[in-house]
Amino acid sequence: MTKDRQIGVAMDFSKGSKAALKWSTDNLVDKGDTLYLIHVKPNQSDESRNLLWSTSGSRKSLPYSTSVFDQVLKLWVIGILTIFDLGDLLFVALIPLSEFREKEVMKHYEVEPDPEVLDLVDMASRQKEVNIVTKIYWGDARDKICESVADLKLDCLVMGSRGLGTIQRVLIGSVSNHVMVNATCPVTIVKGS
């Protein structure tokens, strides 16, 4: 692979995903690469909780009611969101490392960053001069991780394995197996310790 690669790491803050992040920072990323932390949250039944984001990541089609627009505008004015208008959609920009570190910013996305993950990405950013960006999707992890490959134009994807047994995989399905079969880029599965 060439430099300036787009590398994705599926991040659910589990032991397996942390092992995938560590493996990526130790063995894969290099100066000039962009490392995307891809986090998928399940759909919420409470529409107000994921009002801004939906099908393709940190974005959601919004009805242009005054109250919704005012709420989004307030978040934009105080610097929480970076948005631009395109037809009926408001898009939220990717979350840079500087914002990923801030609890107040991540609270708006309902994500609690893990100190171990922050240490790993800080180290990669400083020592390897890697760009770190977070992208949040809402929906089924299997589908959204596969969609992120095209959305972010990933050169490769790294993800952890939960280590499910055969029966568990049959009953609840394996995210890593689905992604390996359906992703349009090379996928590396890292086993947790």
From TrEMBL:
Limits of the UspA domain: 5-55, 119-191
Pfam families for this protein: Usp (PF00582)
Key words of the record: Membrane, Transmembrane, Transmembrane helix
Keyword Cell membrane recorded: no
Membrane spanning residue stretches: 75-97
InterPro entries associated with the record: Rossmann-like_a/b/a_fold, Universal_stress_UspA, UspA
Key word NAD present: no
Protein name: UspA domain-containing protein
Lineage: Eukaryota, Viridiplantae, Streptophyta, Embryophyta, Tracheophyta
